[in-house]
From TrEMBL:
It comes from the Bacteria. Residues 40-280 form the ABC transporter domain. This is Phosphate ABC transporter ATP-binding protein PstB. The keyword Transport applies. Pfam families: ABC_tran (PF00005). One of its GO terms (molecular function) is ATP binding. The gene is pstB. Transmembrane segments: none annotated.
Amino acid sequence: MSEITTTLTGFSAATIEKKRAVDAVQEGAQSTTGTAEYTFDVSNMDLFYDEYQALKDINMKIRKNEITALIGPSGCGKSTFLKTLNRMNDWVEGCRVTGDIRFEGQDIFKEVDPLALRYRVGMVFQQPTPFPKSVYENIAYGPRVQGINDKKKLDEIVERSLRQAACWDEMKDRLNKSALGLSGGQQQRLCIARTLAADPSVILMDEPTSALDPISTQKIEDLALELKEKYTIVIVTHSMQQARRISDRTAFFLLGELIEYDNTLDMFTNPSNPKTEEYITGRFG
């Protein structure tokens, strides 16, 4: 429920001025990157909670239109790193970040409005977080607060987003019914559709299938593989099998450090670091 509240708060704070900030991010990205290869470029990044250092000297470039998986044991820093990419850690008291994080060529701390960044870099959480509204209003809510009120335009966004999330056929006849009546897997795909409605270029996923059954998990994985044609996806997962199935590149975190970052097939067949090999072969974690 706290994640729903946080998301609603973020949406309700949006104004036309913030919509202009989103446009500024897009214009700035176009002017600075052109056909740049990387969506994110993270250099010498450290993250602290007061005096405790949670992430240490992270250096990582995330390629456009690929799926990047973040793996590692619980508490290793992978979710913390994920939430740094759209500055959701700003809401954590005592959190501070040093180093450089660039999104499409722009410094996310110096050159980008945080709310604008969160529209461009969407988040899907571990537990489905549908708003206590109709299916239609779940999708239309974000565009509305971005200043889109034309019914025809909203209808188009709702249908397009649900189609992109592979759930239009399941939900087209229940658009006016509560999203809370959907199954867990349907709710998670609805949340992905809601993210897509904000027109992001990146989708962050924090263990999006951990609460789902195998069939729903497969649907989310298939959807991610389709979406990477248009979006950059970064996914935290405890399932090494899932990382191997769907990701192009994998990052292994341990005790706040990035131990290895490589092509997924290479990492799982021939890891360069002994710690990585120990983890993926199940010796710890």
